[in-house]
Structures are given as structure tokens and as C-alpha cells.
Write a structure and sequence with these properties.
Length: 100
């Protein structure tokens, strides 16, 4: 079974879909992650503001962050970085996970 991990920048809640001005990209990404999970992929999402220990425990993520916080989100598939600095679309996620 594939595993998808997302290391998000600090946000007000686990999905970033909260507060007075919700980013439509985050709304779509949350829906896309739900779809990915429905395809049988294990999805784990980490928020820097709530789970800094998860970031510190992953040397590859720490290296990305050392070059700038704009490298977040960092997306991993089965432990390998497949994207940094952008939220992938459903089509991109499907491709990276071999679901396309």
C-alpha cells in the first residue's frame, strides 16, 4: 500500500481550511487527499505549527526547510520527496502515486 505524507507550513488547523479567508487551493487539496485515501493510499498530514517534532524527525524535510520556508509543503510518497513548495493537483497526486 502506498503512503503519502504532507508536511504543511504552520496553519490555524490541520487542513488550513479555517479562519475568515479560506484559501481555495487548500479546500481543493483537502478534497483531493480524501479522494487519495479512498483509493487505498495511507495519507498522513503534518502541520508545522502543531507537530514540529514530525518535521525534526525527517532529515530530508529539515534539509528542504533549511533552504527556505517557501519549500513547504513538502510531499513524500513512500518516504521519497516528490514535490516541494506547491500543493499538487488531484491529477498530479494520482500520477505520483501511480493511480493515473
Amino acid at each position: 500500500m502506498k503512503k503519502l505524507e504532507i508536511y504543511d507550513p504552520a496553519m490555524c488547523c490541520s487542513t488550513g481550511v479555517c479562519g475568515p479567508e479560506v484559501d481555495p487551493v487548500l479546500v481543493q487539496f483537502a478534497a483531493d487527499l480524501k479522494w487519495v485515501a479512498e483509493q487505498g493510499v495511507t495519507v498522513q498530514r503534518y502541520n508545522l505549527g502543531q507537530e514540529p517534532q514530525a518535521f525534526a524527525a525527517n532529515a530530508d524535510v529539515v534539509k528542504q526547510m533549511a533552504t527556505g520556508m517557501d519549500r513547504l509543503p513538502v510531499v513524500l510518497v513512500d518516504g521519497e520527496i516528490v514535490s516541494a513548495g506547491i500543493y499538487l493537483t488531484r491529477a498530479q497526486l494520482a500520477h505520483k502515486l501511480g493511480l493515473a
